[in-house]
Amino acid sequence: MPATKTLAEMCTELPLDVAVALHADFYKDSQWLAVEQEQVFAKTWQLAAHAGDLRHTGDHVVCQIANKPILIVRHQDGQLRAFYNVCKHRAGPIATCKGSAAKSLQCAYHGWTYSLDGQLRSATEMQGAQQFDVGTIRLNDVRVHEWNGLVFVALSSDVPAFDEVYAGIAERIVPHDLSTMRFAKRDSYELACNWKVYVDNFLEGYHLPYVHPGLSKVLDYRVYDTELFAWYSLQHSPLRNNEGIYGDGHAYYYFVYPNVMLNITPGRLQTNRIIPLGHERCVVEFDYYYTDDPEVQARAASEQAFSDEIQAEDIAICEQVQRGLASGVYEAGRLNPKRESGVWHFHNLLRRAYAQQK
Ligand code: FES
Ligand SMILES: [Fe+2]
């Protein structure tokens, strides 16, 4: 059996050419998920919605971010507002599902009503309550940011500025322009593995020839490259021989720490959001966005079917890796400096987060 390592040892960052993967304990022990919710998910910008659901005043969506209920609404001033979806009366939900054109936000439990900026306006049948002033009661605010039709929230004030995290992406992918793409469809996949297994797998093309023989023909593995930035990594490759599935051009695969992926091919954005359901389960949401270009629209169905095939291959290997990590005979293996720099980058960001825990 492997010897037990201290947290400090498991969080030590090593240069890439001598680096090892993140220790198996982080993938198989349930205690780490609570630490991750606090130190990773609550301290980063989280993809929460798309602006297509929040076009007009009063349009709103609800979501769970770092396991907390969140409500996002379009205010009369045209800007988005986000709050904890937790009523100040007895913690009921202000909204239970998405909705449109609300004039105010009325709690689903006893009907207390808030304005679109989170201020309590009226409290049903509370006339007899002494020392009760609606003017002093408001929902807890959450930071919200809109970027190219995607909506992000950050629960903590201890999160880098959004523009710092996403710096350079829009400029790099020109002539692709994410702001011209509209939401088309969501596919969700539930996996029997720790959320980080899925992220690790996304972060390297090393497995392409073995796990995805079909995709290997489309991407040019010889020039498949990984670049590292402060908060994200980019894998990219020219597209070839893809029989019209993606069109001609370049594929960009961005991973933004800790759980957002932006997969960009000509005229198309596919976002992935990886959400832990437990320490050995996660859900992966694929949202598809397209430009109005008829050529792009015409290839959407075959591209989604191809993506579904690749996902089935990734799910199978990820679930097997989880069993391997949990087997008790694996601790942390060496990383390939040429092919796994993205994994190394992700693991180091996580090590810094784990080291923060009290
Ligand atoms: S919990 Fe919201 S009105 Fe009672
Ligand atoms: Fe894969």
UniProtKB/TrEMBL annotation:
Keyword field: 2Fe-2S, Dioxygenase, Iron, Iron-sulfur, Metal-binding, Oxidoreductase
Domain Rieske span(s) in chain numbering: 45-153
Domain of life: Bacteria
Any GO MF annotation of the entry: dioxygenase activity
CDD domains in the record: Rieske_RO_Alpha_N
A Pfam family per the record: Rieske
Cofactor field: Fe cation
Residues making up the signal peptide according to the UniProt record: none
Matches recorded under SUPFAM superfamilies: Bet v1-like, ISP domain
PANTHER family in the record: CHOLINE MONOOXYGENASE, CHLOROPLASTIC (PTHR43756)
Family, similarity comment: Belongs to the bacterial ring-hydroxylating dioxygenase alpha subunit family.
Protein name in UniProt: Aromatic ring-hydroxylating dioxygenase subunit alpha
